[in-house]
Amino acid sequence: MHNFDHAALETYLATHVAGFRTLDSIDKFSDGQSNPTYRLRSGGQQFVLRAKPPGQLMKSAHQVDREYRVMQALARTDVPVPKMLHLSGEDTPLGTMFFVMEHIDGRVFWDPALPELTKPDRSAVYDQMNAVLAALHSVDPVAVGLQDFGRPGNYFARQIGRWSSQYKAAETTPLPDADWLIAWLEDNLVADDGAASIVHGDYRIDNMMFSRNGTNVIALLDWELSTLGHPLADLAYQCMHWRLPHTGHFRGLGGVDRAATGLPEEADYLAQYCERRNIARPDNWKFYVVFSYFRLLAILQGVLRRALDGNASNPKDTDQTRNVIKVMARDARHLASS
User: Fold this and answer.
1) Which helix (H) or strand (E) holds 282?
2) What is the pLDDT of residues 271-281, one digit of tens each?
């Protein structure tokens, strides 16, 4: 993804990152669709570097400086995040802004059905995810210096406007179901109830690192979409995955026998979160889930556009991505109409 001079990058890192000496190797992680992420080896140590991709970028996307800032702020809370080590400027040996953080030795679960775990451990993993989400939304943004991390006003109104605009900017072929969803979300916008917290923006199981031999979340990663917003956006986004098919590109839990496998039902997960935060079960739950569908399909449309333009971090089959977008738009319209 990045062209760079090895010696120049080595000198830069040795100057700016405590404990870094020589750049013995740099390897790109194969996963991820947005910001290229690399494993650095220096002597007996490992570091992780996360950078903006090269090329023409969409406005407000790939803001690695926001990722760095929020994780640095959360280091003083109960939310597990890696230690931040350095944030660069735009003029770097990579040609783009990047940050360096500690390397954490853990495991990532790519299949939300957790086939590699026992039934009790599956339950424990989902309980941990629930607890970390509740902990994140309980952090006082002012107390950690993030009071200006988002804009005031109706979060969902801003988000619908933002993602509608980004979807249209990345649109490759007309999709009537997506246009219908934009109109439905605008017509069914929930009133601003004043709830606000730090939101992760992409809260799902494969953006977390778990302990090697246990079920504890040891790092919550991929904060590119984080902001100050409504906590139900994070909760509905994760709960949306209960509805997505457990096939191919989706990585959802649709069709998985939750009782037999030890996975919680969506309603139970929602109730557990509300109990942890001492709040009532939300009204208009359908709106939040439909919004999550549209937001994800807009993100995927941006992935597709970058792949077609040749600057995706991890290009995948474009025909498959197109199909996923169509299916999500269809299913979200069906949910909204029910």
Assistant:
1) none
2) 999 999 999 99
